[in-house]
Amino acid sequence: MNEKGFTDIIYNELSNNSLIKNSYEVLKYENLLYKLIINDKGELQPEDYIKPTRGKYAFQTDIVIKKIIPADPAVAVQEGVNGLELHVGERGLQQCAGGIRCVNDGVYIPLVVIEIKYGGLTTHDVLTYSAKALKHKDIYPYLRYGLVLGGLKSIPNRFFVHNQGFDFALALEIDNEKLLNQDSGLLNNVIVEQLKASEMLLKPIGKNNKNPKQFMSKLEIK
What is the DSSP letter of 9? Predict the structure, then answer.
């Protein structure tokens, strides 16, 4: 087993969770912005900040879970316009293959990021990924950022000493290229809770801000 193989196991586990796949999209090796700048012409860079690419103020992540918000929900669910089906597609308002008409993709909002390490965790790993998490959170302040360790029975002490940007961490074991049953349940439960937390953090900065009077983070170490 290597890191890529372990990433595939985590990806497949979360992709098959009905609580996740019915409302979110699980993706591997997606890019997320770490910076937005105004250039010498007064223009926002990168121009295409909806679909970040590496080399243009974006870092690649191992796994990201996104919430899909159609650009126009009323159109996205409509059926039968001039005999054509309308659906959310990748090419805007134009004819698609098979006589299908597409509507705008809408917005994919990243809610949870998971970085993967397998077989060990160094101090350098913690410092690097933790700093990376903080830079992503500068752009996406509601983002929940986690570290999943494979092939380890526990989270090394160095994580707690040096962590600054991670919201959660898990040490998971595998058997015959599958997560142990208890670890499978742990992973799915934690990620669902992190999605709920991110959704809550979205509300105060959204258009429907209800002026909350309390904020508190719950800490658990088991």
Answer: H
Cα separation of 222 and 135, whole Å?
28
What residues contact residue 99 under an 8 Å CB cut-off, 6+ apart? 84
Full set of structural domains in the chain with CATH: 3-69+111-205 (3.40.1350.10), 71-105 (no CATH)
Q: Where are the beta strands (DSSP E) in 151-211?
A: 168-172, 174-175, 178-179
Look at residues 45, 188, 25 and name the one whose alpha carbon lies nearest to residue 110: 25
Mean pLDDT over 119-133 rounds to: 96
Say how many C-beta atoms besides its own lie within 10 A of residue 145's C-beta: 25
Say how far residue 175 (Cα) sits from the centre of its chain. 26
Cβ neighbours of residue 216 under 8 Å, at least 6 residues apart?
A: none
Eight-state DSSP code of residue 53: -
Q: Tell me the per-residue pLDDT of 78-122, one tens digit each, with 9 for 90 and over.
A: 443 443 343 444 434 333 333 333 344 557 789 999 999 999 999
Contact between residue 59 and residue 34 where contact means Cβ atoms under 8 Å apart? yes
Q: What is the pLDDT of residue 71?
A: 59
